[in-house]
Design goal:
about 230 residues, mainly alpha, Ferritin, 6 helices, about 70% helix
Length: about 230
Amino acid sequence: MNDTGSCSAVGDACADDGRAEAVEAACRSELPPSPAQSGRVTRTALLGGAVVGAGGLAAALPSLARSTQAASRDARILNFVLRLEQMKAAFYEEAVAQGALTGELGQLAGALGQHERRHVDLLLRQLGGEADAAPEFDFGDTTRDADRFAQTAQTLEEAAVAAYIGQGANLTRRHMVLFAQIASVEARHAAWIADVLGGNPAPKAADEAKTAEQVLAVLEETGFERRS
């Protein structure tokens, strides 16, 4: 998903640890060692094993630290997009419940609401006990007024696309496929609402990424999240 928030993605690395050469050297022995040599070999092996063991432990500690940092970073990123998905799911759900939208806008609210709830469920499953509590929302009349609903939907969907693009490469590999699957659907949402508003559903060859701070600023500007 490289450190994510400005962090880089963690990839798998493979390195030659010299074991192949050690095996090859052992196979080249033509005569068994003498008893004296055996003693030296045993002591050398033991000492060498101690050194390798200590070295292995030393090598494992940074690896463990990196793994812990990567997991923490993943959780922050997944909670970041979860916050956005929860807002959108609640927005569309309320719009459908209000019953003020007709025609294609009503159809869009119903379809996108189902998608966003599914996205929330998928993210919650990935996060498990690390998921942040869902905020409460107040959408005012944006879920009842067709024009305000359409403009708000476009703002939220464009923010979602930019958020997924901006953070996707910062995740560790195991979360990247899910992120990409959701991002592609969010782009379709943005294209649909742009078309409903009479705009170009695909105005650019490549969408722009936004930082977490930029996306959070969009969420703050809506004023939808209730302060506890």
